[in-house]
Please model this.
Amino acid sequence: MAKDLTAVRRSKAIMIPMIAVPALLMVVMPLGLGTFARAAPTDQVTNALDSPLVRDMVQPILDLPERSRIVVLVLGYLLSPLLLVIPLMVSAVLAADAFAGEKERRTLEGLLHLPIEDRDLFTAKVLGAFIPAVAITLTGAVLYALICNVVAWPVLGRPFLPFTQWTIVMLWVAPAVALLALGLLVIVSSRAKTTQEANQLGGAVILPLIFLVAAQASGLLLAPPVAVVLVGAFIWGIALVLVGVNGRRFTRDRLATNS
Model:
């Protein structure tokens, strides 16, 4: 794991997207959209939220003063789901480098001769991508919450992030999403011959998952906390099954054959 993380830190091709995309989602967009929402007219938003079809669902927003609703809606419920793209993106980048990077750097032979079990090698590769993905996501969530609270303070007069569902999504659902991506992508990396090939194959696998997560996360933030916990448990279950199946199938012989 330490060797992999050192290689990641030295690679500009990996570090630049890992810094640029979170910075865009966690700093630039909340500042820009939050400032715009704060100055936007509220009549149309209030009328849309007060319609019979969505009134019960968006009750937490309707309980706020009228001038605060659009800011909380944009920053708390519409933009926040994009934070779940970060664990997916970071996991995809690091998983692509997990084995394909070893082949590209010509360090695979030394890796295959390490005196450890195949299971331990696979586990180290997964954790080497999972831990940074979760760390970046949680750090980014704290930064995002601070920026959003600062932007919204002139109209709210108080912090609004984190709220219960948002906290559960960041602490419980986001790590599960990261592990789910790794369960899909580590095996792709082990079969690819270069990092570029692994990224291309991984992109085909991960893009539908990104769209699905981004589309459904807003509903999670409006759902009861118990429902959010259950959804997270379901994702954890699928992710652990995928990682377990891929871990049992992983062998040095297969990795060497695909090199």
